[in-house]
Amino acid sequence: MLIGAHVSTAGGLTKAVERGVETGSDAIQIFPQSPRAWRPTNYTPSDFEAFHEAFAASPLESVVIHAVYLINCASKEPEIRSKSIAALTHALRVGDGIGADGVVLHAGARKGEPHEPSMKRAGEAIREALAESETTPVLLENTAGTNGPLGQDFDELAELIELAGGSERLGVCLDSCHLFAWGFDIRTAEGLAAVIDEFDAKVGLERLRCLHVNDSRIPFGGKRDQHANIGEGEMGDEVISVFLSEPRFEGLPALLETPGPERKGPDRAEVEKTKRLRESGLEARKGG
Ligand SMILES: [Zn+2]
Ligand SMILES: [Zn+2]
To answer: Structure pTM?
Structure first.
């Protein structure tokens, strides 16, 4: 498992590599542009080259991009829709440029619209963005928020993958906080194993390419999305260490998107703590 932090790209792509090293990460996640504005950050081939050089010289083994939160692939409004497709396409092209293992995407939200047409629109938008980019996969993230987010359970994720064309460039990112807050019982090793069995049956384990490791400020099944620092939320150290030691998660990038001690994102101490929780989870499984 490649544990690491979501890091800022302020100052350029190579700064993200530096921050990954500073936080003791094995993998990093970045935004391809400012997460709260539509305006894309235009990178040049030499920016990508500098990233490759810095990355190759670092101990980092994986980089993942998180598409901006403004994207709503399910939107009926032509302007939001075309901006969403453009932003996803941009993220995928940055992914192609830096050799990212995927672009994590919250597919969209219904916002009061009926479910099926919303799912169809989201699938088509993703399909278009894939057609406009080369090889980087789209990793649909399971969601737990309000406003009718798509992809809350494995049936919806499987349906979205199908509606988006079903290609090998479609994968999934599972977020521990979202699973817990939605009401997937991942509180014990047995519970988590059953959840991953269900994922395998409905989506296919080969589609699982990335994990988000976050604690939850919302109680189990509370159906809202608010991240807490590792061990400081409703999941706590024990549930997080169960999550981190699931054998089928072996080898995946596992990224922290926590507020961090100063609300500036995860720091080195939190990454190290997460690595220790994985070790203690593995020990507990051996002993049990
Ligand atoms: Zn997440
Ligand atoms: Zn979240």
So the answer is: 0.97
Residue 190's CB is within 10 A of a number of other CB atoms, namely 10
Ligand nearest to the CA of 225: 2
Distance 216 CA to ligand 2 centre (A): 9
pLDDT band at 288 (very low <50, low <70, confident <90, very high): low
* CB under 5 Å of ion ligand 1: residues: 175, 212
What φ, ψ does residue 242 adopt, rounded to 5°? Answer: -60, -45
**Alpha-carbon gap, residue 41 to 111, rounded angstroms:** 28
Chain segment 125-180, per-residue pLDDT in tens: 999 999 999 999 999 999 998 778 999 999 999 999 999 999 999 999 999 999 99
Distance, CA 241 to ligand 2 centroid (Å)? 19
Superfamily of domain covering 2-287? Divalent-metal-dependent TIM barrel enzymes (3.20.20.150)
